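Worked example 3 (structure in, sequence out).
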């Protein structure tokens, strides 16, 4: 009985970790898209001068 509970607990932990990793991939993809949009929108700069669009 204890072994079956441990196996079920392991399955739940692995399922949760897989779900968390998938969510993190979607967040990373959204941040990448926003970064690319900002890079393209501000890449040319003003007056022909290149500027950084980020503050760090």
């Amino acid at each position: 009985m204890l072994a079956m509970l441990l196996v079920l607990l392991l399955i739940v932990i692995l399922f949760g970790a897989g779900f968390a990793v998938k969510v993190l991939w979607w967040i990373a993809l959204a941040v990448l898209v926003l970064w690319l949009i900002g890079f393209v929108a501000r890449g040319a700069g003003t007056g022909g001068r290149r500027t950084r669009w980020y503050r760090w």
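Notes: The chain has a mean pLDDT of 79. The two ends are 55 Å apart (CA to CA).
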